[in-house]
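User: I'm writing a short report section on ligand binding and want a predicted complex to refer to. Could you take this sequence and S-adenosylmethionine and write out the structure as C-alpha coordinates? A short remark afterwards would be nice.
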Amino acid sequence: MRTRHKPWAKEKLAQFPQYVIQDPVSHKGSWAEVFHNENPLHIEVGTGKGSFITGMAKAHPDINYIGIELSESVIVAALDKIVEEELPNIKLMNLNAADLEECFAKGDVDRVYLNFSDPWPKTRHEKRRLTYKDFLKIYENILPDKGEIHFKTDNQGLFEYSLSSLSRYGMTLTFVSLDLHNSDFEGNIMTEYEKKFSERGQRIYRLEAHFN
Ligand code: SAM
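Assistant: Sure. The C-alpha coordinates for the complex follow:
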Protein backbone atom coordinates (compact mmCIF):
# COMPACT_ATOMS: atom_id res chain seq x y z
CA MET A 1 0.00 0.00 0.00
CA ARG A 2 1.61 3.27 -1.09
CA THR A 3 1.31 5.59 1.91
CA ARG A 4 3.55 8.41 3.08
CA HIS A 5 5.55 7.69 6.21
CA LYS A 6 3.77 9.31 9.15
CA PRO A 7 6.24 9.91 11.98
CA TRP A 8 3.37 10.76 14.35
CA ALA A 9 1.52 7.47 13.70
CA LYS A 10 3.12 5.49 16.55
CA GLU A 11 2.15 8.15 19.09
CA LYS A 12 -1.42 8.32 17.79
CA LEU A 13 -1.81 4.52 18.01
CA ALA A 14 -0.70 4.73 21.65
CA GLN A 15 -3.36 7.34 22.40
CA PHE A 16 -6.23 4.90 21.68
CA PRO A 17 -5.63 1.81 23.86
CA GLN A 18 -9.38 1.08 23.74
CA TYR A 19 -9.03 0.35 20.00
CA VAL A 20 -5.35 -0.44 19.43
CA ILE A 21 -4.06 -3.41 21.39
CA GLN A 22 -0.86 -2.19 23.03
CA ASP A 23 0.57 -5.44 24.41
CA PRO A 24 -0.95 -8.26 22.34
CA VAL A 25 1.36 -10.97 23.72
CA SER A 26 -0.17 -10.48 27.20
CA HIS A 27 -3.62 -11.48 25.88
CA LYS A 28 -2.59 -14.82 24.43
CA GLY A 29 -5.22 -17.41 25.42
CA SER A 30 -7.53 -14.80 27.02
CA TRP A 31 -8.96 -12.68 24.20
CA ALA A 32 -12.50 -12.94 25.63
CA GLU A 33 -11.31 -10.62 28.42
CA VAL A 34 -10.31 -7.99 25.88
CA PHE A 35 -13.77 -7.96 24.28
CA HIS A 36 -15.68 -8.73 27.52
CA ASN A 37 -17.59 -11.56 25.81
CA GLU A 38 -17.12 -15.09 24.46
CA ASN A 39 -18.05 -14.28 20.86
CA PRO A 40 -16.00 -15.75 18.00
CA LEU A 41 -12.90 -13.84 16.96
CA HIS A 42 -12.12 -13.19 13.29
CA ILE A 43 -8.90 -11.48 12.20
CA GLU A 44 -7.91 -9.80 8.95
CA VAL A 45 -4.19 -10.01 8.21
CA GLY A 46 -2.92 -6.99 6.25
CA THR A 47 -5.99 -4.94 7.04
CA GLY A 48 -4.73 -1.76 5.35
CA LYS A 49 -6.97 1.25 5.90
CA GLY A 50 -9.71 -0.83 7.50
CA SER A 51 -12.82 -0.54 5.29
CA PHE A 52 -13.40 -4.30 5.27
CA ILE A 53 -12.91 -5.00 8.95
CA THR A 54 -14.99 -1.97 9.99
CA GLY A 55 -17.78 -2.95 7.57
CA MET A 56 -17.72 -6.52 8.89
CA ALA A 57 -17.86 -5.35 12.52
CA LYS A 58 -20.90 -3.21 11.73
CA ALA A 59 -22.64 -6.01 9.84
CA HIS A 60 -21.87 -8.71 12.44
CA PRO A 61 -22.11 -7.29 15.97
CA ASP A 62 -21.95 -10.82 17.48
CA ILE A 63 -18.46 -11.43 16.13
CA ASN A 64 -15.27 -9.81 17.43
CA TYR A 65 -12.78 -8.53 14.87
CA ILE A 66 -9.11 -7.61 14.94
CA GLY A 67 -7.44 -5.89 12.00
CA ILE A 68 -3.73 -6.73 11.88
CA GLU A 69 -1.41 -4.50 9.92
CA LEU A 70 2.37 -4.24 9.61
CA SER A 71 2.56 -0.55 8.74
CA GLU A 72 1.74 1.98 11.45
CA SER A 73 1.43 4.71 8.79
CA VAL A 74 -1.39 2.67 7.18
CA ILE A 75 -3.18 1.40 10.27
CA VAL A 76 -3.78 4.94 11.58
CA ALA A 77 -6.29 5.37 8.74
CA ALA A 78 -8.15 2.30 10.02
CA LEU A 79 -8.05 3.78 13.51
CA ASP A 80 -9.77 6.96 12.27
CA LYS A 81 -12.65 4.86 10.90
CA ILE A 82 -13.05 2.92 14.14
CA VAL A 83 -12.95 6.02 16.33
CA GLU A 84 -15.67 7.56 14.16
CA GLU A 85 -17.90 4.46 14.27
CA GLU A 86 -17.39 3.74 18.01
CA LEU A 87 -17.83 0.00 17.47
CA PRO A 88 -17.37 -2.23 20.55
CA ASN A 89 -16.46 -5.39 18.59
CA ILE A 90 -13.35 -4.26 16.72
CA LYS A 91 -9.70 -3.71 17.64
CA LEU A 92 -6.48 -3.15 15.73
CA MET A 93 -3.00 -4.57 16.10
CA ASN A 94 0.19 -3.15 14.59
CA LEU A 95 1.97 -6.47 14.04
CA ASN A 96 3.81 -8.57 11.47
CA ALA A 97 1.81 -11.71 10.60
CA ALA A 98 5.00 -13.69 11.17
CA ASP A 99 4.53 -12.99 14.91
CA LEU A 100 0.87 -14.06 15.23
CA GLU A 101 1.68 -17.16 17.28
CA GLU A 102 3.22 -15.00 19.99
CA CYS A 103 -0.18 -13.36 20.50
CA PHE A 104 -2.71 -16.12 19.82
CA ALA A 105 -2.91 -19.66 21.19
CA LYS A 106 -4.45 -22.58 19.27
CA GLY A 107 -8.17 -21.85 18.83
CA ASP A 108 -8.00 -18.19 19.95
CA VAL A 109 -8.94 -17.14 16.40
CA ASP A 110 -12.01 -18.55 14.63
CA ARG A 111 -11.36 -17.28 11.10
CA VAL A 112 -8.56 -15.59 9.16
CA TYR A 113 -9.29 -13.13 6.36
CA LEU A 114 -6.60 -12.26 3.81
CA ASN A 115 -7.63 -9.48 1.43
CA PHE A 116 -5.56 -8.22 -1.48
CA SER A 117 -2.34 -9.39 0.09
CA ASP A 118 0.85 -8.07 -1.50
CA PRO A 119 1.50 -10.42 -4.46
CA TRP A 120 5.32 -10.54 -4.30
CA PRO A 121 5.47 -11.84 -7.91
CA LYS A 122 9.20 -12.64 -7.97
CA THR A 123 9.93 -16.29 -7.18
CA ARG A 124 12.70 -15.30 -4.77
CA HIS A 125 10.06 -13.45 -2.70
CA GLU A 126 7.66 -16.40 -2.43
CA LYS A 127 8.25 -16.68 1.34
CA ARG A 128 6.77 -13.19 1.83
CA ARG A 129 3.40 -14.12 0.31
CA LEU A 130 0.79 -14.45 3.06
CA THR A 131 -0.40 -17.74 1.53
CA TYR A 132 3.10 -19.30 1.60
CA LYS A 133 3.23 -22.57 3.55
CA ASP A 134 5.05 -21.06 6.54
CA PHE A 135 2.22 -18.52 7.00
CA LEU A 136 -0.37 -21.30 6.57
CA LYS A 137 1.35 -23.16 9.43
CA ILE A 138 1.04 -20.04 11.59
CA TYR A 139 -2.69 -19.67 10.81
CA GLU A 140 -3.24 -23.38 11.51
CA ASN A 141 -1.59 -22.94 14.92
CA ILE A 142 -3.92 -20.14 16.01
CA LEU A 143 -7.18 -21.48 14.50
CA PRO A 144 -9.22 -24.40 15.88
CA ASP A 145 -9.25 -27.73 14.03
CA LYS A 146 -10.87 -27.23 10.60
CA GLY A 147 -10.30 -23.47 10.95
CA GLU A 148 -11.05 -21.35 7.91
CA ILE A 149 -9.20 -18.90 5.71
CA HIS A 150 -11.15 -16.54 3.44
CA PHE A 151 -9.07 -14.88 0.72
CA LYS A 152 -9.78 -12.23 -1.93
CA THR A 153 -7.51 -10.69 -4.54
CA ASP A 154 -7.51 -9.03 -7.95
CA ASN A 155 -4.16 -10.66 -8.75
CA GLN A 156 -4.58 -13.77 -10.92
CA GLY A 157 -1.01 -14.92 -10.33
CA LEU A 158 -1.34 -14.72 -6.54
CA PHE A 159 -4.76 -16.42 -6.69
CA GLU A 160 -3.43 -19.34 -8.73
CA TYR A 161 -0.40 -19.60 -6.44
CA SER A 162 -2.66 -19.58 -3.37
CA LEU A 163 -5.00 -22.27 -4.73
CA SER A 164 -1.97 -24.45 -5.28
CA SER A 165 -0.24 -23.56 -1.96
CA LEU A 166 -3.38 -24.24 0.13
CA SER A 167 -4.07 -27.51 -1.72
CA ARG A 168 -0.46 -28.69 -1.33
CA TYR A 169 -0.72 -27.90 2.38
CA GLY A 170 -3.69 -30.29 2.57
CA MET A 171 -6.44 -27.70 3.01
CA THR A 172 -9.92 -28.26 1.60
CA LEU A 173 -11.25 -25.56 -0.72
CA THR A 174 -14.96 -25.03 -0.03
CA PHE A 175 -15.69 -21.98 -2.21
CA VAL A 176 -13.88 -20.64 -5.25
CA SER A 177 -15.06 -17.71 -7.37
CA LEU A 178 -13.19 -16.47 -10.42
CA ASP A 179 -15.45 -13.41 -10.64
CA LEU A 180 -16.82 -12.50 -7.23
CA HIS A 181 -18.75 -9.40 -8.28
CA ASN A 182 -20.64 -11.37 -10.92
CA SER A 183 -21.33 -14.36 -8.67
CA ASP A 184 -24.27 -15.08 -6.36
CA PHE A 185 -22.11 -14.58 -3.25
CA GLU A 186 -24.04 -12.47 -0.72
CA GLY A 187 -22.85 -10.10 1.97
CA ASN A 188 -19.57 -9.07 0.34
CA ILE A 189 -17.90 -6.15 2.11
CA MET A 190 -15.41 -4.37 -0.11
CA THR A 191 -11.87 -3.45 0.88
CA GLU A 192 -10.13 -0.25 -0.30
CA TYR A 193 -8.17 -2.20 -2.92
CA GLU A 194 -11.25 -4.10 -4.04
CA LYS A 195 -13.13 -0.86 -4.64
CA LYS A 196 -10.24 0.64 -6.57
CA PHE A 197 -9.56 -2.38 -8.77
CA SER A 198 -13.18 -3.31 -9.45
CA GLU A 199 -13.90 0.29 -10.52
CA ARG A 200 -11.14 -0.19 -13.10
CA GLY A 201 -13.03 -3.25 -14.38
CA GLN A 202 -10.68 -5.80 -12.85
CA ARG A 203 -12.03 -9.13 -11.80
CA ILE A 204 -12.03 -10.12 -8.14
CA TYR A 205 -11.11 -13.69 -7.16
CA ARG A 206 -12.24 -15.24 -3.87
CA LEU A 207 -11.79 -18.52 -2.04
CA GLU A 208 -12.69 -20.13 1.27
CA ALA A 209 -10.69 -23.06 2.60
CA HIS A 210 -10.33 -24.99 5.85
CA PHE A 211 -7.50 -26.93 7.46
CA ASN A 212 -7.82 -30.68 7.99
N1 SAM B 1 -6.46 -5.48 2.79
C1 SAM B 1 -6.34 -4.12 2.36
C2 SAM B 1 -7.21 -3.87 1.15
O1 SAM B 1 -7.64 -4.85 0.54
O2 SAM B 1 -7.48 -2.70 0.83
C3 SAM B 1 -4.89 -3.72 2.11
C4 SAM B 1 -4.20 -4.40 0.97
S1 SAM B 1 -2.50 -3.92 0.78
C5 SAM B 1 -2.13 -4.44 -0.82
C6 SAM B 1 -1.66 -5.15 1.76
C7 SAM B 1 -1.46 -4.74 3.20
O3 SAM B 1 -0.90 -5.82 3.90
C8 SAM B 1 -0.49 -3.56 3.37
O4 SAM B 1 -1.11 -2.54 4.14
C9 SAM B 1 0.71 -4.18 4.07
O5 SAM B 1 1.35 -3.27 4.96
C10 SAM B 1 0.08 -5.34 4.80
N2 SAM B 1 1.01 -6.44 5.08
C11 SAM B 1 1.90 -6.97 4.21
N3 SAM B 1 2.60 -7.95 4.79
C12 SAM B 1 2.15 -8.03 6.08
C13 SAM B 1 2.51 -8.83 7.19
N4 SAM B 1 3.48 -9.74 7.10
N5 SAM B 1 1.84 -8.66 8.35
C14 SAM B 1 0.86 -7.73 8.46
N6 SAM B 1 0.49 -6.92 7.43
C15 SAM B 1 1.12 -7.07 6.25
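A remark for your report: Residues 1, 45-48, 68-71, 74, 96-98, 115-118, 191-194 surround S-adenosylmethionine (CB under 6 Å). The domain at 34-210 is CATH 3.40.50.150 (Rossmann fold).
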